Amino acid sequence: MKKYIEYKNEVDGFKDVSLTVKTVEKISASYIHFLKVMTNNLYNYNQTIEKVLGRLLQFHKLADNIFLKQKKSNRKLLVFLSGDKGLVGGLYHNLANILSDHNEKYDYLIVIGKKGERYIKEEGFKILKSFYFTDYLPTPKEIQEICDYILGQFKNKNFSKIDILYPAFISLSVHQPKFIRFLPFPFVDNSQVESRPAIGLPIFASSPKKIFDDLFTKYIKTFFARVVLESKLSEFSARTVAMEHAAVKTQEILEKIKLDYFKERKRIITQKQLESFSVHRLRK
Hints:
By secondary structure, this protein is α/β, with parallel strands linked by helices.
């Protein structure tokens, strides 16, 4: 039989694990509501911008915008969105598996997150550039720097097409690897815009093209920021669920250790009582 101190040390060790698991779960869960609100707000904000852009299309043609033009280059780029920390179940592994099925479509990858970078390097994919976040959540400045770099690659005609692969948030326990086209940006053309008669004579501080281009760039950057935050939402929800399962498993192990100890203790005590009883009868 193990000594009592051995069982105690084993139990204390799993209690420490349980405490760590619960702490990670609480931290992850605390971000979920915040990220849901943020992604929803960005979506609503972009819907408002989209209505303004639709109004501007009565005075401006889409064909001139640089982010809507198909480039002559045949090179394609994929932005792979992951995270810097683990304990998320198979979230990033599923993304890497999906990428393996589509790898031949892309010449280079931009990887966001250390975990994704590790999977990509193991598969031998070509990485153009990697980005990491300094904290649990990316700052607006970090997101903007990444977006500016991607837009620059397209503006400089280095790539004709840029897609994004990220874990789309479906529910707390469901996250779906999803490809979306980023550039040339999918946007309605003039024929799809609701035809309404212009009311009055609009006054443009600059030109319709300048206003449209500036607002459309903001629209694209807000769209990218929402995708990044949705990816983080999937990460934190996956980590919360994984830690819930880990907490249940840890508790089951603790209960089993305690049960084994008491069973073994009872067996030893019973054995000693029987031996003592036998010796007592023999002496009689």
